[in-house]
Amino acid sequence: MLEVRLLGRFDVRHGGKPIVIASRPAQSLFAYLILNAGTAHRREKLAGMLWPDSLEETARDNLRHALWRVRKALQSASAARFLLANDLTIAFDRSGEYWLDTAALEKLNENALSDELIAVLSEYQGELLPGFYDEWVVLEREHLHSVFEHHMARLMSLLQDERRWLDILDWGERWIKWGQKPESAFRALMIAHAAKGEMSKVATTYERCVKSLREYKIEPSEQTRDIYEKLKAGSEKFAKKPSSSPITEALKQETAVRINLPIPLTSFIGREKQVKEIIRLIDKNRLLTLTGTGGVGKTRLAIESASKMLNEFKDGVWWVDLVGLNDPSLLSQAVAQVVNVTEVPNQSMTETLIEHFRFKQTLLVLDNGEHLISACAQLADRLLSVCKDLKILATSREALDILGETAWLVPSLSLPDIHKSIPAKSLSSFESICLFAERALSIQPAFELTDQNARAIVQICRRLSGMPLAIELAAARVKMMSVDEIAKHLDDRFDLLTSGSRTVLPRHQTLRATIDWSYDLLSAIERIFFHRLSVFVGGFTLKAAEEVAIGGEVKKSQVIDLLGQLINKSLVSMDAHSEHTATETRYGMLETIREYAYQKLEESGEADKIRDRHLGFFMRMAEEAQPEIFLSSQIAWLDQLEIELDNLRAAMEWSMTNEEVERQEAGLRLAAALAWFWERGYRREAIEQLKTMLPKVDTIELSPVHTMMFSAIGFLYWSAGEFDQARSYLEKAVSTGRKLGKSFNLAWALNYLGAAALAQGDQKNAQAILDEAFQMAMDLGPAGKHVVGWALAFLGDIPFSNGDFVKAQSLYEMAIIAFGEVGNLNLKAYPIRRLGYLALYHKDDRNATNFFKDSLMLNRKLKHQTGLIASVSAFAGLARAKKNYIHAAKLLGAVEANLEALALYMLPSDRIEYSNNETILRKQLDKQAFYDAWKEGRAMSLEQAVEVALEELKV
User: Fold this and answer.
1) What is the SS3 assignment for 434?
2) What is the rounded distance in angstroms from the CA atom of residue 32 to the CA atom of residue 40?
């Protein structure tokens, strides 16, 4: 087992033997990953966090080197795989066998007994990662220290209740050693010494406390002074109170609780990081508002967070539930009633509250105040402006919007990827799954999370957007339905999820009622705008909202304000965590909220009109993107289309719903325009979608869309290696294109057809077709440069295969020039790779290396998986030429595995080189050596294979 200690030292061991991670950056990377085990961190985030002052490229190189050091250290000690990494992310595997000292501290709950606290706190050997000064370390160090202090305070209280004076003396001194001059420790020591009759030590301890605190230029608190005076007075002061003693009185004063927090009847699941963040924000701010849609868990999160801050507010933590209060003028009275403040003649209740809180260290929690938002804002502003030690934690579906407020959007529970098959035992790292499983178990004792029902449970949690209330309502259905049946019925979720507890608020008894509460607070125009935004799937931009959601009552000039109001009310959110580099801010809705809004849109009678606008907007985007995909802006456009994928799918689906010809044609134009985008990872899906849409082509008048549709399907079949199918559709594309005359679309169709013929070994026809495509593209002028480059690249493959390397090189170089003139990086990578193979055949390893590297880097920049795999295969050929046979076999094994895993097909010329290299390697290596290397390669991810390929550059 891997044993990791980060408190007071950096110590990593396996089976008791130390593991040396040599460099400080590598240690920091490892520590961050294991402290956040189970979380996949994007590479650029890690690089920026660990090397904030370095250039981006330098930071990424540093990250790769640090990751290599960590992997090497771990692999030298254990065959277990603790790190999970791919092209985008790095994570520490939470399911591995490991022990971490901080984890035990974090897992301690509020019900832990004194001996359990002692066992865990004994592992605390000092601050987190001493000597590390990264910003993230400082923040995590502060958090862990606050957790330690909190549990030490609990331990002192429990030991006092149990009259374990010797243990108090031991642990009080430990706390003083590791703490930050904790007064509570000194108070506990004084009480313990008094209990043992050691009154001189009481005085000595108090003097230590005074001296210690004065180092921070503060004096002991009134509570500490009072306890000392009572203990010093001894029995004389309490002689007339035989039932009491100075010790019991001091204990009462030390452990008195000023709190009225609700006590939840169910366990709190996950969200440890959110609780930490809320505590951190409260520490640094005086007004924190937890915002979010109904059912997202604001109240429960506030209870849990407030309960962990009890020791931070000596005058109490007070909970004010505002749900039942409907008169804003009674807000001050409601707060006064909770904190036991009575009316004062000739003084407003707000002024009376000010006098009460003026010198108190108090946390006031205002829960569920969205329907009293103005009154809450006014009261909070008034109290905070006068009471310097008061802090307020509010929960609301919209922020109070006053000066000094920090609004924090409560996220949904963590969710697994629906597209990944995750074993049931590994799903416990996802909060949504844990919540469903625990609530289902409480209702159905025989319930169990298994590999058989895991996918259905993942589907339920994802479709309910990780919303705690919705998940709890769904889990309640297990007493009458299987999880598969629950998942199937989620299309009618608002009728299905109606089985809430009779004792909770009416608006939390059904999913619909929860959202109705927010909806009813909207104005008429906000409701119309809210309905219309529901046509967007996967988010939208301001520009999209301005084109799709306007009309009638909603003017374009109002969109920004309306969007702001819906964001304030937690019905729309800003997408601050997009994995893409979009230049425009994106907005979105939780899927459950979006479905509610769409039902309202259908009820309004506007659904068809708004969905047609949505289709039109994304059709225009696709047609605008089509030529741009081949220009210097192609990376930005491909990223943008990736972001809009769900909207593109929804628009195509809508276009085929009935016999409306204009609607069908718009869908066809959208689908056909994006052939090169579909090829990047959606090839099979796109082929099936386009073939489903194809019958609609016959319903519209002959136009370029006919050529585009046949051409797109044929191109996708060609890229999938299905050449008979490809030629069939491409011949139809050429036939329809000729009827319309020379055009950009016909030139592309000819190019694809020529490439398909070449792939089948039909060089004669391929030559003629590609020559025609080249000439037609030349006649089209600058717009045809992409086709020119493509034709030249594939024309170069003909003399290459026939051994005429001089002619092949000339054609490849001309293709590169053509692509360079229009900035087409995507297609340029192919002829560059072919030049690399030419250099390899001429035994020019240096130029071969440079060409292969350039091709790989272009494909990596474009995130083109097929091109990346082909480049790894090229590096395998380079390694084979250098007689580094084991290295070459590893790379070819990785190529095969990633082609299978990603359902990709390399270009025919790349496939030929791959097969030739495999044949040579099988002859050069004995069977077992080849198998071992091949097997090692098959275990690599694409990113790992790329890194191994690039090692060739260092040889």
Assistant:
1) helix
2) 11
Give, as one character, the DSSP assignment of residue 215: T
C-alpha 29 chain-centroid distance: 19
Q: Give dist(CA 466, CA 255) in Å, integer.
A: 39
Letter for the amino acid at 632?
S
330 & 402 share domain: yes
Does any domain span residue 920? yes
8 Å CB contact between 583 and 546: no
Write out the residue range of the structural domain in which residue 282 sits.
272-409
The 3-class SS string of 40-51 reads CEEHHHHHHHHC
- Pick from 345, 389, 346, 328: nearest CA to 364: 389
Phi, psi angles (nearest 5°) of residue 89: -135, 165
Six-digit token string for 57: 């490229």
C-alpha to C-alpha distances, 283 to 390, 770, 851, nearest whole angstrom: 12, 69, 55
- Of 479, 395, 109, which is closest to residue 269 (Cα–Cα)? 109
CA nearest neighbour of 395 among 373, 427, 362: 373
- Residue 631 burial class via C-beta count within 10 angstroms: exposed 0-12, middle 13-18, buried 19 and up: middle
Same domain assignment for residues 284 and 396: yes
With respect to residue 100, please indicate whether it lies within any of the assigned structural domains: yes
Shared domain check, 505 and 566: no
Q: Are residues 493 and 560 in the same domain?
A: no
Q: For residues 727 and 896, what is the distance between their CA atoms, to the nearest angstrom?
A: 26
Same domain, 292 and 397: yes
To which H or E segment does residue 84 belong? strand 83-85
Show Cβ contacts of residue 462 under 8 Å, excluding neighbours closer than 6 positions: 415, 416, 418, 432
| Residues in the chain where the model's pLDDT stays below 70 | 79-80, 110, 179-181, 234-259, 263-270, 324, 418-421, 479, 489-514, 517, 575-583, 632, 783, 826, 952-955
C-alpha distances in Å from residue 634, one per residue of 239, 617, 638: 88, 20, 6
Alpha-carbon distance of 358 to 349, in angstroms, equals: 14
Which residue matches tokens 């205002």? 366
Cβ contact 144:180 at 8 Å: no
Q: Which tokens sit at 477?
A: 């259905």
- Tell me the average pLDDT of the chain: 84
Same domain, 565 and 658: no
Q: Are 479 and 444 in contact (CB under 8 A)?
A: yes
Tokens (6 digits) for 215 = 């180092």
Q: Using CB atoms within 10 Å of the CB of residue 170, give its burial: 0 to 12 exposed, 13 to 18 middle, 19+ buried.
A: middle
Last residue of a domain, one of 513, 539, 560: 513
360 and 307 in one domain?
yes
* CA-to-CA dists, residue 195 to 191, 222, 226, 705, angstroms: 6, 22, 17, 92
Mapping DSSP to helix (H, G, I), strand (E, B) and coil, where does residue 555 land? Answer: coil
pLDDT computed for residue 511 by the predictor: 61
422 in Cβ contact with 449 (< 8 Å): no
- Conformation bin of residue 883: beta by default, left when phi > 0, alpha when psi is -120 to 50: left
Residues 655-712: pLDDT tens digits?
A: 988 778 889 899 999 999 998 888 877 888 899 989 988 888 878 888 898 999 999 9
Reading the block at residue 26, the tokens are 């590598």
Same domain, 532 and 509: no
Question: Which element (helix H / strand E) includes 559?
Answer: helix 559-568
> In this structure, what are the phi and psi dihedrals at residue 391, rounded to the nearest 5 degrees?
-125, 150
